[in-house]
Fold this sequence. Notes:
Substrate binds at residues 15, 75. NAD(+) binds at residues 134, 198, 203, 220, 239-240, 267-270, 279, 298-301. The active site is at 96 (proton donor/acceptor), 270 (proton donor/acceptor). This is Alanine dehydrogenase. This protein starts with a strand and ends with a helix. By secondary structure, the chain is α/β, with parallel strands linked by helices. The protein has helices at residues 20-28, 47-52, 61-67, 79-82, 101-110, 131-148, 178-189, 201-210, 222-231, 252-256, 306-327, 329-335, 337-340, 353-363, 370-375, and strands spanning 2-5, 32-36, 56-58, 70-72, 90-93, 113-116, 170-174, 193-198, 216-219, 234-237, 263-266, 287-290, 293-296, 343-346, 349-350. The chain folds into two domains: 2-120 and 306-375, Rossmann fold (3-Layer(aba) Sandwich), CATH 3.40.50.720; 131-299, Rossmann fold. The longest helix is centred in the C-terminal third of the chain and has 22 residues, at 306-327. It has an eight-stranded mixed beta sheet, sandwiched between helices. Strand 1 (2-5), helix 1 and strand 2 (32-36) form a beta-alpha-beta unit. Helix 11 (306-327) packs across helix 12 (329-335).
Amino acid sequence: MLVGVPKEIKNHEYRVGLTPAAVKEFVSHGHEVIVETLAGDAIGFSDEMYQQAGATIASTAEQVFEQAELIVKVKEPQPNECKMLRKGQTLYTYLHLAPDPTQTELLIASGATCIAYETVTDDRGGLPLLAPMSEVAGRMSVQAGAHYLEKAHGGSGTLLGGVPGVAPGKVLVIGGGVVGTNAAKMALGLGADVTILDRSLPRLRQLDDIFNGQVKTVFSTVDAIEHYSSKADLVVGAVLIPGAAAPKLLNREQIRAMKPGSVLVDVAIDQGGCFETSRATTHQDPVYVVDDVVHYCVANMPGGVARTSTMALNNATLPFGLALANKGPKQAMLDDPHLLNGLNVHEGKVTYKAVVDALGAQLGFGYTPAKEALAG
């Protein structure tokens, strides 16, 4: 199979779909790989390294999309990329379709097979291709929050760790999954006063064990969110409903009740954000202020540490990518129900229920089960 890797074009996105080491794996399995020039150059993966791994270098993205049977990316395709996709081609990347009607319409129109990293599952009910970026984003959320708490960057001038004689800053993490756990680890490491809210009592018990009682674990209710957010210096939104739009956990009135100069970091912004006042920002222009509260809503947070993120992502995506190339996409998905769960769009049909629930009525499409779509 001919595998293509275009250069990412989203604002300040330096990650790349395949590292040279991953390319070498595909080549060793008898596949050809074409990589757009400078696709990984910004993070130390030169064209020469890709050539040494066995790839061919393309001078334009158009060449990659025109030739490749399997397109491997990181971020969701931008409109001009969607328009280069075609029937018979497979796209393997993050999609986050539920809050993105434009991309959804374009992918339906393309006729391509579109597999979303964020909805591939595993035997434990986890999301193995989302997890590495969730780990990165969780850790970055506290770094970013600490930075924007500094007075010169619009914050209240609070040091999360405090100093002897001065109480540490208060960090509220809403959601105790992969993002929330990693955010809590970083905040605790800085010496902050950390509280995690979650709606799962078993998960709260696990977190209590993980942190040995050093982090407060609280069952999430509207009252708890209101109470703890009003006292927090930094709030990290870390909730996820797989493939669906994120629930809005803090409304405008609750945000208005927060301390002036406090910081909101919305890690769920890829799925539409979990705060009413959230809107996607970029690494170039990462924050804005609403009601004296600093909002950090960068939609590709892990892109800020692109080298680490790329290697972590490739570790997770490579086995599934090889299966797609070795068996062909249809057979690979039929053989693996977890990979099949990643299928969101196939030849004009939407195959992921949460996307249909979010956009079907608006855009006029219905739900087709993945196996039924592949059989057609």
